[in-house]
Design a protein that fits this description.
The protein is an all-beta fold and 1120 residues long. 3% of the residues lie in helices and 47% in strands.
Length: 1120
C-alpha cells in the first residue's frame, strides 16, 4: 500500500497557494513543522494523489501522560465527520502499543477519485486536552507517457536482401529543424497548479524557480469571482442520512432562465426521485430517499456559468446483533467465528489481535457472508492461532477467544487377550477417541500385512484385526500402534491344542474354565456396556453331558435355553458358548453352568460385571463470581458406571449461543472448579461431564446463567470533615474502578482503637459520598472505614490512617463580611434586600442583629441563621429601614462584630440654590451654585446645566452629570441675551424643579482685557500623596506610588534602606505629571525593606518613605 507522499518542491521552498499573503521564506531556509501537543506524528500538510491509487494517512498519539484513552476524529472541511463514511472507499484503523503506550491511527482512501480533493483535519481529544492537524489532498488524473519504440527511428524504408533492417547512418544526416512557436513561461506559471511548478521548471530549464515564484506572486492579482448568472450559489457541501430527503437550493439572476442539474457530469432527468422546482429566482433540486449512489458531486448550470456542491450520504451505524463465541479446540480442528449484524451487505473488518485479516490466495483464513451472517473460518487450527479475534463494524465491536491444545488420543476400549482353538476365528478389537486416527498392527514386533486369512478393518473409532482359520504359528503378542501418537495397545493370542486321550466310556462331566482373556479375577468377567460377551466353556465327559446355563446363584432358577436372540446359548462338540449381544446393565449378575451325564455332574459359577460410562454429574451451579472468573460446584454422578471415576470435563457458553467451549482437556478430579478468562458483564452457562475408564458421560444439565462481576475498588480520599462531642462527619470520593456491576451504595463502619470488632454505622446503604456517624463516646479514639457495595459484594475498605478523637473542636467566631457590604449599601425604596453573611466558629455561634444600637424589629426585618451563615431579608425596602446594622457573633465569652450601613433612597433631590454668573468674557460665561438643601437622603451624583436664548427661548443642555458646583458655558453668541438653569441628580433621578432660573444677561460686543500680571509659581517640593506600606507575595511584580508638586520641577531620587537605587534593571522609575511610580519586577524576599522617595529643587526638598514586606508563596496561599 503506498504511503502518502507530500508534493515535491525545491529545497527550502514552501508550497505557494493561490491567494496566500504570507511571504515566501528566504533562500536557504527550510520550513519544518515542530510536532506539539498530543501528536507524535502528523499527516503531511500537502499530499498529491493520483486518481485510482490508494493512499494512507498515519497519526500517532503518546498516551503516557493521559488519564483516559484519546478519541480520534477524521474530518473533511470544517464539520464533515468521515467516521460515517467508513466502508469500501474509506477505512479507519486504530492500534495500540502497550510497551511504548502509543496509539497509531490510520485513514486509508481506496481508489482515490477527484471528489476526495480538499482540506482535511484529524482531531484528537482526551478529557481536557485536545490537538488537531490539518492537511490538504490534491488529486491528479492518471497519465500514461507514450513509450515510443526507439528502434523504429532507425528502420530502413527500402532495405535490400543483403542490407540490414536498421540504418544508423540516418543520425549523421542533416534534418530540417521545425520552428516551434516561443512559449511564455510566465504565462505557464501563472495558470499552472502549484504541484506542476517543478515539472515546468524541469521541462523548460528554469534554474532559479524560487526567484521566479517570488516575482510571480507580486505579479498575480486575484480577481474576485463575480457570477453574472447566480445571486446565491450552492453551499460547498451537504450531508444527509441514508434514506432521508435533501434539498439543494440556489438563486439565479433571471427568474425566467432555465437551469440544468448535473450529477458527476451527467444531466439529471426529472423523476419521482429527482424533483426540480423553480420558484421566482430560487431553483431547487430535491433528492428523495437517498442511497449511497447519491453520494456524488452536483452542478447547477446556467448557460456557461456553473455552481458546484458535493453531497455526502451518511450510512447508519451497523450494529452487531449476535456476539462472537469463544472456541476451545485441538490442533487440526475447524473453527468458525460467526456474528450477525443489523443490515445485510454491511462491511465487517476482522482482526487477529491487532493485525487485520485479509482474503488472500495463500491465507488460511476464509470469509463467508450469508445475509446478515458473517463468518471467519479457520480450516485447521494450529498453536499459532491462539489469541483474541475481533470483528468491527462502523457501529459495533465484538471479540472471541480461541484456545488450541495439542491432540491427545484417549483409549476407550483396550485389546483383550484371546484363547482360540485351531480353525477358529480370532478377532482383536480396540476403540480410540478420534475416528480419523489410522494405525498399524504388529505381531511380536513385525508388521502384520493383510492376506486372505488376515484382514484389518477401520470403521469409525473401532480398529479390528481378524484372523481366520487360526493356526499354531498365529499365537503371539499382537500390538496396535496409532499413527502420530506415542501410544500402543497390546494383547496376547493363545492357541488351544486339542489332545486326544483314551477316555473310558464312563467319564464324569468336567467344566474347564479359561481364566485368561477378559477375566479380571477368578470366575469374574467384565464387559463394557454395548459390547458383545462370548464365553466359550470347554466341557468333557462320556457320554456327552447335558449343559444348562442359568442366571442366579441357584442353578435352574432362571435357565437360559434360547439358541437365538440377544442372550443365547450355542452348543458345539465339547464346547458350550454363552453369548450376550449388546450387554446392558441388567445383564450384570452371577451365572451358573451345570453339566450332567450318567457318570455325574459338575457346576461352575461366573460373575458377569457390566461396566458403562457414568451418569452425568448433578446440581451444577455457580457459587461465586469475580471480574473475569466464576466458581462452579457440582455433585458426583449417582452411578459411576461400575468403574472408578477419573475426573470431570467442563464446558461453558455464552447465554443465547449454541457453541460450547471446552475448559480443560485433562480430566479434573475435584468437584469445584474456577472458570477464568471470561468477559465481565456477559451471561454464561456451564455444564460438566464425568469420565471413567470406559468413557465420558452425557453432559449434565446446564447451570443457571451467571455473570462475572467484580466488586468495585475501594472508595478514595476518605477524610474527616467535622467532629463534635458525639458525631463525626466523613467524606470520600467514588471508587476509581466500578465495573459492570455498578455501585449500589456505601457501608460505614467504626471501631474503638485496639478493638477488632467493627460496628456498622448505617442500617441502609448510603448513596451519597458523605455520612454523619452519631452516638459516638466522648473522648474515645475511633477508627473509621468505608466499603463500596454492588451486586458482586463488598469492595476493599478505605480506612483512615489515624484514629479520630471524639471531642468538640473549639474555633473562634469569625464573620466573613462580603466585600460589597464593607461600604455603604444603597438601595431604592421598594427594592428587595437579601444579605447573606457567612461566618465560622465552633460550637455553633449565636448570631444577633442590632440596628442603631437596638435589637432589630422582627416585624420590619426578617433574619434566618444557620450553622455557617446568617441572612438579613427585607421584602420591600422603605426609608425608615436606613441605618447602621450590627451583627454580633458570640460563642460563650468570645464574640466578633461587623457593621453594615444601609441607606434607602426614594426621593429625587431639590434644585441647586444661589445660581449665579460670576464672570463673562469673550464667548464664555462662568456659572456657580450651591448644592440643594434636600439631597433626597442620597449623595448628589451630578448636575445638568441648560441655556436658552431670549430670542427663541428654547432650552439646550450645556453639561450633563457635571460633578462640580461650577462650570463654564462656551460657544455663546456675542450680543445675545441668555438664561441658565441647573438640575441636581442623585440615585433616584433628576430634581423636579430647576428653579431658580438665572435672569437673562447679555454678552458684550466688546471686552476689556485686564492687564496681565505674571504670578510667581515657585514653591518648595511637597508630597501631596505619601507612600503607603505594602505586603506582597514573592514572584509577583508590584509597584509603589506617591505624588509631588514643586516649581522648578524637582529632581526625584529613589532609595532602598537609605541607599540610592541606581540603574538596576529590576527597578523601573516613572514620573507622570508629578505622579511618581517605582515598579519592582518579580521581587524576592531579599527585596523587602524601607523604600523612600526624595524630591529636591533650588528652594528645598521633601521626603516620604514606606515599608515593603515580601511574603513567600506558601505563606501567601495559607493567608488566601
Amino acid at each position: 500500500m503506498p504511503e502518502p507522499v507530500p508534493a515535491a518542491k525545491p529545497e527550502g521552498e514552501a508550497d505557494p497557494q493561490p491567494g496566500q499573503d504570507e511571504p515566501l521564506p528566504a533562500d536557504g531556509e527550510s520550513r519544518s513543522t515542530e510536532l506539539t501537543g498530543l501528536f507524535l506524528e502528523k499527516p503531511p500538510e500537502n499530499v498529491v494523489a493520483v486518481a485510482g491509487s490508494d493512499i494512507t494517512f498515519i497519526a500517532k498519539v503518546d498516551s503516557s501522560t493521559l488519564t483516559r484513552k484519546p478519541a480520534m476524529k477524521w474530518l473533511k472541511g470544517k464539520w464533515l465527520d468521515l467516521g460515517s463514511k467508513a466502508g469500501k472507499h474509506m477505512q479507519f484503523k486504530e492500534t495500540y502499543d502497550r510497551n511504548t503506550k502509543i496509539y497509531t491511527y490510520e485513514m486509508k482512501i481506496i481508489k482515490v477519485v477527484p471528489g476526495d480533493a480538499g482540506g482535511y483535519r484529524c482531531e484528537v481529544t482526551s478529557k481536557d486536552k485536545c490537538d488537531s492537524s490539518t492537511f490538504e489532498i490534491s488529486v491528479e488524473a492518471a497519465h500514461q507517457e507514450e513509450q515510443a519504440d526507439i528502434l523504429s527511428a532507425f528502420k530502413r524504408a527500402d532495405a535490400g536482401e543483403d542490407e540490414g533492417d536498421l540504418d544508423f547512418s540516418a543520425l549523421l544526416k542533416k534534418k530540417p529543424v521545425k520552428e516551434e512557436p516561443e512559449i511564455d513561461v510566465w504565462e505557464l506559471l501563472k495558470n499552472a497548479h502549484p504541484s506542476e511548478y517543478e515539472k515546468i521548471a524541469f521541462e523548460y530549464g528554469i534554474t532559479d524557480l524560487r526567484g521566479m515564484l517570488k516575482r510571480l506572486k507580486k505579479m498575480k492579482v486575484v480577481e474576485p469571482k463575480h457570477s453574472e448568472a447566480f445571486l446565491k450559489r450552492l453551499d460547498s457541501c451537504y450531508s444527509v442520512e441514508k434514506g432521508k430527503k435533501i434539498v439543494l437550493k440556489c438563486e439565479v439572476v433571471d427568474p425566467d432562465v432555465q437551469v440544468k442539474w448535473l450529477k458527476n457530469g451527467q444531466e439529471i432527468k426529472p423523476s419521482a426521485k429527482y424533483v426540480m422546482e423553480a420558484n421566482g429566482n430560487v431553483r431547487t433540486l430535491t433528492i428523495n430517499r437517498t442511497t449511497l449512489a447519491d453520494d456524488a458531486a452536483y452542478e447547477c448550470v446556467v448557460g456557461e456559468d456553473k455552481c458546484f456542491t458535493e453531497v455526502f450520504v451518511k450510512e447508519p451505524p451497523v450494529t452487531i446483533t449476535k456476539l462472537m463465541d469463544d472456541y476451545h479446540v485441538v490442533v487440526g480442528e475447524r473453527v468458525e467465528f460467526e456474528i450477525e449484524v443489523s443490515e445485510e451487505g454491511a462491511h465487517v473488518m476482522w482482526y487477529f489481535e491487532d493485525i487485520e485479516l485479509h482474503k488472500d490466495k495463500d491465507s488460511k483464513y476464509r470469509f463467508k457472508k450469508d445475509g446478515k451472517k458473517h463468518t471467519l473460518i479457520i480450516q485447521e487450527a494450529t498453536l499459532d492461532d491462539i489469541g483474541m479475534y475481533h470483528a468491527w463494524t462502523n457501529g459495533g465491536h465484538t471479540k472471541g477467544e480461541l484456545e488450541v491444545e495439542e491432540k491427545e488420543l484417549e483409549v476407550l476400549q483396550d485389546i483383550a487377550d484371546l484363547t482360540v482353538r485351531a480353525t477358529d476365528q480370532a478377532m482383536f478389537k480396540c476403540e480410540v477417541s478420534d475416528d480419523k486416527v489410522t494405525g498399524k498392527w504388529y505381531k511380536d514386533g513385525v508388521e502384520v500385512l493383510p492376506s486372505e486369512r488376515i484382514k484389518m478393518t477401520h470403521i469409525g473409532r473401532f480398529h479390528r484385526l481378524i484372523i481366520d482359520d487360526v493356526k499354531p504359528n498365529d499365537a503371539g503378542d499382537y500390538t496396535f500402534v496409532p499413527d502420530g501418537y506415542a501410544l500402543s495397545l497390546s494383547a496376547k493370542l493363545n492357541f488351544l491344542e486339542i489332545k486326544i486321550d483314551y477316555v473310558p466310556r464312563q467319564d464324569p462331566p468336567k467344566i474347564h474354565l479359561d481364566t485368561t482373556g477378559n477375566m479380571v479375577s477368578q470366575n469374574t468377567v467384565i464387559v463394557v456396556a454395548g459390547n458383545k460377551l462370548r464365553l466359550d466353556v470347554e466341557i468333557t465327559g462320556e457320554p456327552a453331558p447335558t449343559v444348562v446355563w442359568s442366571k442366579g446363584e441357584k442353578p435352574n432358577t432362571a435357565p437360559v435355553t434360547d439358541t437365538e436372540g440377544r442372550v443365547r446359548v450355542e452348543s458345539r462338540k465339547d464346547l458350550s458358548c454363552f453369548v450376550i449381544e449388546g450387554a446392558e446393565r441388567e445383564d450384570e449378575g452371577n451365572y451358573t453352568i451345570c453339566v450332567t451325564n450318567p457318570a455325574g455332574e459338575d457346576k461352575a459359577m461366573l460373575f458377569v460385571k457390566i461396566v458403562d460410562v457414568p451418569d452425568p454429574p448433578e446440581n451444577v451451579k455457580c457459587t461465586s463470581v469475580g471480574e473475569d472468573c466464576g466458581t462452579i460446584v457440582w455433585d458426583p454422578p449417582v452411578f459411576d458406571g461400575g468403574a472408578p471415576l477419573k475426573g470431570y470435563l467442563m464446558e461453558r457458553k455464552k447465554k443465547g449461543s449454541s457453541r460450547w467451549t471446552k475448559l480443560n482437556f485433562d480430566v479434573y478430579e475435584s468437584t469445584t472448579y474456577e472458570a477464568k478468562r471470561m468477559i465481565e458483564g456477559v451471561m454464561y452457562e456451564m455444564r460438566v461431564y464425568a469420565v471413567n475408564s470406559i468413557g465420558m458421560s452425557p453432559p449434565s444439565l446446564s447451570s443457571k446463567p451467571f455473570m462475572p462481576i467484580a466488586p468495585t475498588s475501594e472508595p478514595t480520599r476518605l477524610t474527616v470533615h467535622d467532629v463534635t462531642d458525639s458525631t463525626c462527619t466523613l467524606k470520600w470520593l467514588a471508587p476509581e474502578k466500578i465495573g459492570a456491576g455498578g455501585l449500589d451504595g456505601y457501608v460505614i463502619e467504626y471501631c474503638k482503637e485496639g478493638d477488632t470488632e467493627w460496628v456498622v454505622a448505617n442500617n441502609e446503604l448510603c448513596e451519597r459520598q458523605g455520612f454523619v456517624v452519631r452516638g459516638l463516646p466522648v473522648g474515645e479514639k475511633i477508627n473509621f472505614r468505608v466499603v463500596a457495595v454492588n451486586i458482586a459484594g463488598r469492595s476493599l475498605p478505605a480506612i483512615l490512617q489515624q484514629p479520630v478523637t471524639i471531642r468538640e473542636i473549639m474555633e473562634y467566631p469569625k464573620i466573613r463580611l462580603p466585600r460589597e457590604l464593607r461600604t455603604k449599601y444603597i438601595r431604592k425604596v421598594g427594592d428587595k434586600i437579601n444579605l447573606t453573611i457567612p461566618f465560622q466558629g465552633k460550637p455553633r455561634p449565636v448570631a444577633t442583629w442590632y440596628k442603631d444600637g437596638q435589637p432589630i424589629d422582627a416585624k420590619m426585618v426578617n433574619v434566618r441563621n444557620s450553622n455557617v451563615d446568617t441572612i438579613l431579608f427585607i421584602r420591600s425596602a422603605e426609608r425608615e429601614h436606613s441605618g447602621k446594622y450590627e451583627l454580633v457573633l458570640q460563642i460563650e465569652n468570645m464574640e466578633d462584630r461587623a457593621t453594615v450601613e444601609i441607606r434607602i433612597v426614594g426621593k429625587v433631590p431639590g434644585p441647586p440654590v444661589n445660581v449665579k454668573v460670576t464672570e463673562v468674557w469673550g464667548f464664555n460665561a462662568a456659572l456657580e451654585w450651591q448644592p440643594p438643601t434636600d439631597d433626597g437622603n442620597c449623595e448628589i451624583t451630578g448636575y445638568t446645566i441648560q441655556k436658552a436664548d431670549m430670542k427663541t427661548k428654547e432650552w439646550f443642555t450645556v453639561y450633563e452629570h457635571n460633578r462640580r458646583t461650577n462650570c463654564t458655558a462656551s460657544d455663546l453668541i456675542m450680543g445675545n441675551e441668555y438664561m441658565f438653569r441647573v438640575y441636581s441628580e442623585n440615585l433616584c433621578g433628576q430634581s423636579e424643579e430647576p428653579l431658580p432660573v438665572l435672569p437673562h444677561f447679555s454678552i458684550g460686543l466688546e471686552s476689556k482685557q485686564n492687564p496681565f500680571k505674571e504670578q510667581d509659581m515657585s514653591c518648595v517640593p511637597k508630597f501631596t500623596q505619601p507612600l503607603v506600606d505594602r505586603s506582597v507575595v514573592a514572584g509577583y511584580s508590584t509597584a509603589i506610588s506617591c505624588a509631588v508638586r514643586g516649581f522648578p520641577r524637582p529632581k526625584i531620587v529613589w532609595m532602598k534602606n537609605k541607599m540610592i537605587i541606581g540603574g538596576d534593571p529590576k527597578y523601573l522609575m516613572q514620573n507622570n505629571q508629578g505622579v511618581l511610580t517605582l515598579n519592582i519586577r518579580k521581587p524576592s524576599t531579599f527585596d523587602g525593606g524601607k523604600y523612600s522617595c526624595m524630591a529636591v529643587n533650588d528652594l528645598g526638598k521633601d521626603e516620604v518613605e514606606c515599608r515593603l514586606d515580601i511574603r513567600s508563596k506558601n505563606e501567601g496561599e495559607e493567608r488566601g
